Amino acid sequence: MKILIVNKFLYPNGGSETYIFKLGEQFQNMGHEVQYFGMEHEKRIVGNRVESYTSNMDFHTGKLQKLLYPFKILYSREARRKIRAVLEDFKPDVVHLNNFNFQLTPSILYEIKKTAKKQGRNIPIVYTAHDSQLVCPDHLLYIPHRGEVCERCLGGKFVHCSKNKCIHGSTVKSILGSVEGYLYKILKTYRLLDVIICPSEFLKNKLSTSPVLAQKTITLHNFSDASTVEQSEKEDYVIYFGRYSQEKGIATLLKVCKELPDIPFVFAGNGPLEDEVNATANVKNIGFQTGDTLREAIAKARFSVFTSECYENCPFSVMESQTYGTPLVAANIGGVPELVKVGETADLFESGNAEELKRKIAALWEDRERLDSYTKNCQSVKFDTLEEYCHKVLEFYSR
Question: What's the whole-number mean pLDDT along residues 38-51?
Answer without folding.
Answer: 96
